[in-house]
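I am still learning, so can you show me any protein sequence you like together with the matching structure tokens, please?
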Amino acid sequence: LGVATGARQDFAHVLLTVRDVNDNPPAFQFPSYTPRIAESSENGTLVAAILATDADTGVNAQVSYTLQADPAVLAYFALNPVTGVLYTL
């Protein structure tokens, strides 16, 4: 960075840190998921592995998963918030 006023000038080293803005939405591997499982499936049966990525960097690129559904559905299924694995309870 340089500053000049008439015959005088000065220079300084400046460190710039550019922080990422959360400006990219998550992108899912597939546009929709339609898993099928048997009614008699055991607890812990894998239903689907949801995968999303985010083009941001740092913490803005971290994806977490939540399952929002009717309480009756939540009694039978769970979603790992880190891996995106949906499984039966």
Notes: The chain is about 5% helix and 25% strand.
